[in-house]
């Protein structure tokens, strides 16, 4: 594959960049933080989204240095937002969510790299959330969970991404070092009409109630309309992300959004 062989040079030449999509509190719409989403500005093909190259990077192992680069950029960006907002003086510092591939989980440098990156940027661990897909943790043994547990003990939040699309048994949640469920976009799609499909409502209601009883916060993805936001808010979801609030964009846009409701 052409793109696969071009990946290492692309990292050297700085062809990757990060867009940030805001996460908001469903209660009042205020900005909570942002998710970092990597893109590749390819010299011939233009902007490529992660579905085009993350699987290739995972296959070749380049995801480890690429993921470290994404983490470092995003953590520095979060620190910069916080400083422009008054740093630790801000009531609630803006947070940053970064996606982790399964290969990064098994890489022995994960914990030390993360600690290093946070320290060098001067960002509190509690301002970082690492997103791991539900499928990456299905059947995870203790060796796989150990680094996540260490990060969680340091104060880093771990979110279970695309929740509801895997086959994980809900009782299994208790043994995962996870503090946030990111409800998959497919559930949000079921809230498109008002009132929403009663079965979808029951399912989301059940997930939210289980999550809260286990002290997990619930983030919803793919919110595209006000009706979806309102129904998910009534169901007790905590934070949301989607085109209704903002598409992924450059870092300064998040700063502007956060200032508007500050
Ligand atoms: O909006 P977008 O097409 O960027 O996101 C597609 C998917 O790519 C997301 O679901 C996300 O999980 C994944 N993704 C985006 N950025 C990264 C990244 O830096 N690392 C990894 N591993 N996955 C990412
Ligand atoms: O990590 P994850 O796969 O959840 O990344 C989020 C993905 O969802 C990205 O590809 C992002 O561009 C996309 N996305 C974000 N908001 C919306 C939305 O409101 N609707 C849809 N259809 N996709 C969205
Ligand atoms: Mn994600
Ligand atoms: Na997701």
Automatic annotation (TrEMBL):
Residue ranges annotated for the EAL domain, each copy included = 1-262
The highest taxon in the source lineage is: Bacteria
Name of the protein described by the UniProt record: EAL domain-containing protein
In terms of the whole protein, what range is present? 451 to 712 of 714
């Amino acid at each position: 594959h052409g793109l696969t062989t071009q990946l290492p040079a692309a990292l050297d030449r700085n062809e990757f960049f990060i867009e940030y999509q805001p996460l908001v509190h469903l209660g009042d719409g205020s900005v909570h933080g942002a998710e970092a989403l990597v893109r590749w500005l390819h010299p011939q093909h233009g902007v490529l989204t992660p579905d085009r190259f993350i699987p290739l990077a995972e296959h070749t192992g380049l995801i480890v240095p690429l993921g470290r680069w994404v983490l470092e950029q995003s953590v520095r960006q979060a620190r910069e937002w916080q400083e422009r907002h008054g740093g630790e003086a801000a009531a609630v510092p803006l947070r940053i969510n970064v996606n982790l591939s399964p290969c990064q989980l098994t890489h022995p440098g994960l914990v030390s790299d993360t600690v290093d990156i946070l320290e060098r940027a001067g960002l509190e661990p509690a301002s970082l959330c690492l997103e791991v897909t539900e499928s990456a943790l299905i059947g995870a043994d203790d060796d796989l969970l150990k680094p996540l547990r260490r990060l969680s003990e340091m104060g880093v939040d771990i979110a279970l991404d695309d929740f509801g699309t895997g086959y994980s048994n809900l009782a299994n949640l208790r043994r995962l070092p996870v503090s946030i469920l990111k409800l998959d976009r497919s559930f949000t799609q079921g809230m498109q009409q008002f009132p929403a499909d009663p079965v979808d409502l029951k399912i989301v209601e059940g997930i939210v109630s289980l999550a809260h009883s286990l002290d997990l916060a619930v983030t919803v993805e793919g919110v595209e309309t006000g009706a979806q936001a309102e129904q998910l808010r009534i169901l007790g979801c905590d934070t949301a992300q989607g085109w209704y609030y903002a598409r992924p964009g450059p870092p300064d846009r998040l700063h502007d959004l956060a200032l508007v409701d500050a």
